[in-house]
Design a protein that fits this description.
By secondary structure, this protein is an alpha+beta fold. The protein has 2 helices and 8 strands.
C-alpha cells in the first residue's frame, strides 16, 4: 500500500531536486490538479482555491485563468510545467511554453502519494 502524506514539503522537494520531472497529469475543475514526478514516481494532488492568470503585471479574472489552465492541460499538456512551489504561502505556479501564459494557483490542500 502506498504512503499518503498531507504536506506540501514533498512537492517542494520534488521541485527543488528535479523540477523538469514534474508533469501535470490531471485537472478537474473547479478544485483538483494532479502532478506526477517521473523521477521519484510520486503523485501529488492539489486541492486548489483560487486561480489567477499571470500575464506580465496584469491579472485577469479567476474564471478566465481556470479556463486558460484547462485549455493548456487539454490541448498541450506536455508544454505545461511547474515554475514555482511556495509551501509557506500555499502557492504553485505553472507556465505553458506553447501559449506563453502563466497561472498562479492558491492551494488549500497538498497530498502526496509515494510508492
Amino acid at each position: 500500500m502506498a504512503n499518503v502524506f498531507r504536506s506540501g514539503a514533498f512537492l517542494r522537494q520534488c521541485f527543488s531536486v528535479h523540477p523538469l520531472s514534474l508533469t501535470v497529469k490531471l485537472l478537474t475543475l473547479p478544485d483538483t490538479v494532479g502532478i506526477a514526478c517521473r523521477h521519484c514516481k510520486s503523485r501529488h494532488r492539489l486541492t486548489i482555491g483560487a486561480v489567477t492568470h499571470l500575464t506580465g503585471n496584469a491579472d485577469t479574472e479567476a474564471q478566465d485563468a481556470a479556463a486558460a489552465l484547462a485549455a493548456c492541460v487539454a490541448g498541450h499538456r506536455d508544454a505545461l510545467h511547474v515554475t514555482d512551489v511556495c509551501v509557506e504561502r500555499d502557492i504553485v505556479q505553472f507556465r505553458c511554453r506553447e501559449c506563453r501564459t502563466g497561472v498562479h494557483v492558491a492551494v488549500s490542500k497538498f497530498e502526496t502519494c509515494q510508492p
